Amino acid sequence: MVERIPSLRTKVGSNRSPSPLVFLFIFLFLAGILLTLFMRSPLSKVSQIHIQGNRLLTKQQILQQANLQRDSFFFDLDRESIRSSLLKRPEIADVKVDRRFPNRLYIFLHEYPVVAYLSYQQRFAIPVLSNGVLLGNHACPIQVATRPLIESDAWDERIFLAIKGLASVPVTLRKQFLTIDQVSGQPDQVMIRSQYHHRIYIRASEIKQKLPLYLSFRNHPPGTLYLLRSFWFHSDTGLSDG
Fold first, then answer.
1. Contacts of 57 (CB under 8 A, 6+ apart)
2. Stated pTM of the model
3. Do the record's keywords include Protein biosynthesis (predicted)?
4. Which CATH number fits domain 114-241: 3.30.750.24, 3.30.230.10, 3.40.640.10, 3.40.50.10960?
C-alpha cells in the first residue's frame, strides 16, 4: 500500500501595513536633511537689511557696529547680540531687532535727541545729546547750529543737569531758547536767553518742572523772568510782575 504524504498547510497570515511612526520618522529625517541644506545654501543668506530711526548714525556705521554683512546666514543671526553691540554706541538709547523669514532683517533704532550745542572756538558747534554726551565727530559751523547754544567755558555739572531737563520739555519750546549759561555766585542756577529777549533764571534741577511756565510770560516785553522758589518778571523798562 502506498501511503500518501499529507500536504503541508501553508499558514496564511495577515499582511500588516508599516506603522505610521515609520512614515513620520522618514518624513522628519528627510525634512531635517532639507532644512540643513537650506540653512547652508545661498538662499538662507540675508539679502535685505532695513534700518529705521537713524539720524545721527549712517547705515554703514550701524552695520559695522553690529558686525553685519549682506551675506550673513539668516539662522546665524543672534538678535540679542546685535542689540547689545548697538547699545554700546552713545547715540543709541534703544534698539529692536526683528528677523523675518526667509532672508530679511529689520533694525529699529531710538537715538538720544540733540538738545543743545556746545560752542567750540567760537567757530564750531558740537551737538549735545540728552544723555550729556558730546558728539565731537558731528561738529558743524556755529552759524548753522540749531539752538540753544552753550559756551565752552560754561560746561559744568549744573549745565549737565540743565541738558537733561531740556530733554524733557517739548521741542517747540526748546527751540525758542538761544543760549544757556552759568549764574555767577549761584552754583545751582542757570540763565537761559530766549528769542523773545528774555533772560530766564532757573535752577538746573527744576527745568523739567518749571521751564514750561515760560509760555505764560513769552508775550511780555523784554526783561528778566525768575522761576525760582517764587516767580516774578522784571521788564527792562522797570516794571515788575510777580
1. 89, 91, 92, 109, 111
2. 0.72
3. no
4. 3.40.50.10960
